[in-house]
Amino acid sequence: MQQQADVAGPTGRAPIAAxxxxxxxxxxxxxxxxxxxxxxxxxxxxxxxxxxxxxxADTAYGLSWSVQGVVLAWTxxxxxxxxxxxxxxxxxxxxxxxxxxxxxxMMGIWPxxxxxxxxxxxxxRQTAIQVFLEWLALAMVFQVVLWPLCANMDWKPRxxxxxxxxxxxxxxxxxxxxxxxxxxxxxxxxxxxxxxxxVLLLGEPAGMALINVGAAGRTxxxxxxxxxxxxxxxxxxxxxxxxxxxxxxxxxxxxxxxGTLIWMLILxxxxxxx
Length: 274
Prior knowledge:
Elements: H1 2-8, H2 36-84, H3 91-116, H4 124-152, H5 157-182, H6 187-211, H7 230-236, H8 242-268
């Protein structure tokens, strides 16, 4: 009797919370009485919300650690490059080769490391964003290397800007290739993408060298490199090359435009699993 009185309350009637769901005008989940399908639909968003938040937090945590690891490895690479160039005869060739070492890291070492990692299991856009953030971290750290050289190498701000845009454009194009490669879990695809990165960096000078093998006694075959960045970077890192920077500007702008366009297409592509 005491238990029934507790349930009934002081008014002698059972409170609403104590009544079963069938005694209400509607189901507690928001559906119609006796309609379990609509009740499930009503409770789905609330049930899935914690899972979505947890997945978002896990994704952000993974991206953060990925970028931090890249920044750490990139800093070590740049530090080793500086140490190896300490024995240079003068500061000017050391500064020039420091830029080339940075370019090799962004277009060769980082793609090789990134394509050797696991991936391709998550959503397409998530993988692409991760690659883009890693490239952005590399490019931002490179600014700390590049701009202090401006004062010591007799580079004018305009020349340094064109040089910076050249490194950014070619490395952005390389990052697009890496994003396409990381979308697949097949080793053959990733190997082909890595070969493409090497062709982008070294293809033209290697082809020129092969053409001129055994060219003793005749004029060597040369051309202005359009695909590889090596000739452009070499010209733009020369001391006082301001008057020549305008000649390379259309090529640099073109590469930067192509890289940006490819990335816009990658990020606009329908999301899918790898």
